[in-house]
Design brief:
The chain is an alpha+beta fold. It contains 14 helices and 8 strands. The strands form 2 sheets. Strands 1, 4, 5, 6 and 7 form a 5-stranded mixed sheet that branches. The chain has a 3-stranded antiparallel sheet with strand order 3-2-8, with no helix packed on it. The structure holds a DNA duplex. It catalyses: Hydrolyzes free adenine bases from 7,8-dihydro-8-oxoguanine:adenine mismatched double-stranded DNA, leaving an apurinic site.
Length: about 375
DNA sequence: AAGACGGGGAG
DNA sequence: CTCCCAGTCTT
């Protein structure tokens, strides 16, 4: 068999594969908010939100975000704190900060138009190989690969590829495959169809091979190894951390909150003062209270709630202390300067600050229960 | 190449 | 309980 003829066969299979996939997609695609129009800005926001996050989780956030920031100009003009508040509960908050910064960049350097070249779009903060390809293809119909977890799973099965998809180098292999098989005139639909197939049919467990539109193209189905693919190394167990948090109330019923550092875990979100437990007793709590610059009523403190919160790489076991404040030595705690990292606020004002879910749990178990 | 970075839902 | 999701950035 000649080399030319093999290429012809590949091309024929490719055309049939595209046809089978796109025909299925045209009929079965979900009606998602970001599919109602092709505004590159809206596609962009949706893609950032969808990173490591399921569609059902994203939808209400996306709707709210678009009502608050319907355009590049609106988002670029917003306060970062407002953007973080809109992101509250979604997780991976650097996505929100990077998106905000990148949108400002688009407004200033690209006249508010989301760039349509691989080179320009990849310079934007938070836009990596996947998101660049997703925006170029979905918004501009440019035949660029957009390889996410879905695509790697689908293609690993179709081509029985046993490479570890947890490795950073593996993605490039799948990008090369997509470049070979992508529809050049329907790049937007093709990439979305591949992901839609991964989400609806070619699922991680119990894939619905019997109703799969491309089952005739699938090596894993043919060999019966779909349950073995894709290969993915399992990650190590998260590290456990014992924390102690303080819900401190002054005589007017205000509570003390503080802003987290600009970088690292939950950067720039707000929280109740807390420390990593240093002792088994309460002495570390007392020294921290002294450091804040306040005094408590009485000399006894006790734990009123235990909160467990699981991150991808850390587990917080938080002992929550509630206490009444009798004296405040540090008068800065009452200044409304936003640069102030610690401040007393009213219970109603809690709704204005972005909190991580771990501290929303603390609010639920203490302040929201009344008993101030 | 490996780890940091959230939170939720499915099985 | 385990897995992992429309990943990116940092080291």
């Amino acid at each position: 068999m000649s080399f030319e003829k093999e290429n012809i066969m590949v091309d024929i299979n490719k055309t049939v594969f595209q046809g089978d996939l796109l025909e299925w997609y045209d009929i079965n695609k979900r009606d998602l908010p970001w599919r109602r129009e092709r505004d590159p800005y809206k596609i962009w926001v949706s893609e950032i939100m969808l990173q490591q996050t399921k569609v059902d989780t994203v939808i209400p956030y996306y709707e709210r975000f678009m009502s608050l920031f319907p355009s590049v100009e609106k988002l670029a003009g917003a306060e970062e704190e407002t953007v973080l508040k809109a992101w509250e509960g979604l997780g991976y908050y650097s996505r929100a900060r990077n998106l905000h910064q990148a949108v400002k960049e688009v407004k200033e350097s690209y006249g508010g138009i989301v760039p349509n070249s691989e080179e320009d779009i990849s310079t934007l903060k938070g836009v990596g190989p996947y998101t660049a390809g997703a925006i170029l293809s979905i918004a501009y119909n440019i035949p660029a690969p957009a390889v996410d977890g879905n695509v790697m799973r689908v293609l690993a099965r179709i081509n029985t590829i046993y490479d570890d998809i947890a490795k950073s180098t593996t993605r490039k292999k799948f990008e090369a495959i997509v470049r070979e098989i992508i529809s050049t005139d329907r790049a937007s639909d093709f990439n979305q169809a591949l992901m839609e197939l991964g989400a609806m049919i070619c699922t991680p467990r119990n894939p619905a091979c019997l109703i799969c539109p491309v089952q005739n193209h699938c090596s894993a189905k043919e060999e019966g190894v779909q349950d073995l693919l894709p290969v993915k190394a399992k990650k190590k167990a998260p590290k456990k951390l014992n924390m102690k948090a303080l819900v401190l109330k002054d005589k007017e019923g205000r509570v003390l909150i503080e802003r987290r550092p600009d970088t690292g875990l939950l950067a720039k979100l707000w929280q109740f003062p807390n420390i990593e437990a240093a002792t088994r007793d309460h002495t570390d709590i007392f020294s921290h209270i002294e450091k804040i610059g306040i005094e408590l009523e009485g000399s006894e403190v006790h734990v009123t709630q235990k909160v467990k919160h699981v991150f991808s790489h850390i587990v917080w076991e938080i002992d929550v202390y509630e206490a009444r404040v009798s004296k405040v030595h540090n008068e800065k705690l009452y200044e409304t300067d936003t640069r102030n990292s610690q401040r007393f606020i009213t219970v109603d004002e809690l709704n204005w600050f972005p909190f991580p879910v771990s501290h929303q749990k603390i609010i639920e178990g203490t302040i929201a229960k009344g008993e101030v």
